[in-house]
Amino acid sequence: MTELLITTNGFTTTWPAIEYGSWLASHLNLKVTLLGINEKLYPVQIDDHNPLEQVFERAISLFNEHGVKYSLQVQNGNAEEIIPQKALEADYITLIGPLGRARLRHLVSGRSIRQIMEDISSPILYVPQVRVPINKILICIGGLGYELTAEYLALQIAKISSAEIALMHVVPPVELNYPTARIVSQNLDHLVDTDTPQGRSLRQAMNAIQETGLSAEIKVRQGNIVEELLNEIKTGGYDLLCMGSSYSGNSLRQLYAPNVTAEIAESVNVPVLTARLKKV
Known about the structure:
The protein is of the alpha/beta class. It has helices at residues 15-28, 51-66, 79-87, 103-109, 112-119, 148-161, 179-186, 197-211, 225-236, 260-267; strands spanning 3-8, 32-38, 70-76, 92-96, 124-126, 136-140, 164-171, 216-222, 240-245, 272-276.
């Protein structure tokens, strides 16, 4: 059975993940494992106040208030290494917030969420800010199938508060003149009706949403994928963003295209749910 793995290294920026996870667990009746990571445990610090103590105290109070079943774990080391290792141990949805890294570290090695997304194959909820109740969800449909696992989880969350759903597909600028690209570019207003991978993905998503008793609108844009998604998020008032991830997919596209999910997660204050396609 799926459980929530909520992670913290003691920084205040990780608290939104704990608050969001407690809310989600209480509504979906999920068990929580709260993983605290001691990143700077030196002998001279043994008698000092550990920032995890206060975070755990607040978290326990919150879990009890929401009636959430939980367990607590603490490990020593680097969060970027420990979180992926722990995520492999069970059927987890991993919740993580910003780890409080210095700006210089971002410039040298990039943001932690990008590396963690690359290392974890199970679902991830990145929570830079709490937005509950969830009234509006944006599900990004790429047409390659990577979004299917994230979409399924998004629908479970949407049912909690009967959230409005928007399905969005961004058509990138056409660089090669091939039949599918021409069909897509010529049918932006009714892409869902076309016999293209994008059209089939949209129809499949709409059918899944209708089966839950919810409804959705379809948005199709053309242009730079990251820019168009950021514009929609900025103006749409969404409480949750759901995207698939192509990490570890068998596609040459990975070798030259930026990972859209990571770029979006690094740029917005909206919780981002991402998961790789599960092959069956």
